[in-house]
Amino acid sequence: MTLAAVDSTKNPETEDVGAIMRDIGARARAASRALALASSSDKDGALANMAQAVRDHAGDILAANAQDLAAARAANVGNAFLDRLTLTDARLEGIAAGIEAVAALADPVGRVLATWERPNGLQFERVSTPIGVIGIVYESRPNVTADAGALTLKSGNAAILRGGSDSFLSSRALANAMREALAASNLPEDAIQLVPTRSRDAVGLMLRGLDGNLDVMVPRGGRSLVERVQAEARVPVFSHLDGNCHIYVHGPADLGMVRNVVLNAKMRRTGVCGAVETLLVDRAIAETHLVPLVEMLLEAGCEVRGDEVTRIIDQRVVPVTEQDWATEFLDAIIAVGVVEGLDGAIAHINSHGSHHTDAILTDDAASAERFLNEVDSAVVLHNASTQFSDGGEFGFGAEIGIATGRLHARGPVGVEQLTTFKYRVRGAGQIRA
After folding, report:
1. Rounded to two decimals, what is the model's pTM?
2. Which fold has domain 245-388?
3. What tens digit of pLDDT does each residue of 405-431 get?
4. What is the number of helices (H) and of strands (E) in the chain?
5. pLDDT, tens digit, for every residue of 363-402?
6. CATH second-level architecture of 21-241?
7. Which of 381, 119, 124 is nearest to 262 (CA)?
8. Cα–Cα distance measured from residue 265 to residue 260, given in angstroms and rounded to the nearest whole number
9. What is the CA radius of gyration of the chain?
10. Separation between Cα atoms, residue 336 and residue 354, nearest integer Å
11. What are the strands, taking DSSP E only, across 346-430?
């Protein structure tokens, strides 16, 4: 079967968007009911076929990605954006391996979460179940197509994917490969549907719930996208706002360890949401740690925007603005400042951060525990790079995004976070007095 054979759209750019989306919603709901009853072996077999389909169709996927990249370059987008958009043989293999990692996870559906018996003899169970239909809206990262499709399938949900216009062709090629694998596995192809139009009206229709067929929205992208979803959604939202991540260096702290972690957290991949955007150094160790850290970042090609103390170090350091402290740069840019001890660092992070991921680098265990307890973020780390804020690194296989809200899901959204629960109650003819 070719990829074209499983692309169910018909001239979507000239058709009625409302009719397209209503049809997608209805088909997703039907698919979700079938998936909720699918066995673990059926889902895992389909995931194995998906991984192989990505490998088998690598040429088609990379050709589509080349077209997206050419259009992006013609639009003069930045290097960080191009990095997020780019697929390579190695990244495709990583996508396939990620799907296989999801298949290897325990089935999150049907887990008995709690049991108890009441004095009247009624027996209660709380059991995990799929949510139903998950809508995912994302920008410029075609790999999210595969991550979201694999995670929703494993958790027994149907997915409606609306990728960014810039990655439209890449996402379509990936989605078609995955749909082909579903068909070959005798599971409904409509368990994974990519919105076949670039029209922004499609997002608005998803936010209104598609006639009750969409159960939750997951936005993954920049602030403007997330804010629109939060403002307009008529269905629950797993929110993922900016990844304005911090590292705070607190004494005593081994300088070699600190240098390695900071460099990795900033420069490994600057365009990921777990990249550190602000570096805070305790005034008590600024004399020994601030200079080598700033010099290291500058030599690595990172623009440093510093406070008054930091600007003294090197004339290449530019003045930091108040806006910089709250900015997710997604580029080789970092804000650097000196703070007054642990209290100053925690106050700064809770005030300027996005509640995504923040880390403390220190040999002082007591201070580390205070930081982990008092910083109000989805992920807090001690002596580790913020770029570990990733579903794969958590052992989740993959993630749909990092939820920065406080309800239901927080941090990397993996298969367990894509389930809800119901109660099963067994009796022997009891009636209520």
Report:
1. 0.81
2. Aldehyde Dehydrogenase; Chain A, domain 2 (3.40.309)
3. 777 778 888 899 999 999 999 999 999
4. 14, 16
5. 999 999 999 999 999 999 999 999 999 888 988 877 887 8
6. 3-Layer(aba) Sandwich (3.40)
7. 381
8. 9
9. 23
10. 17
11. 357-361, 379-382, 402-403, 411-412, 419-426
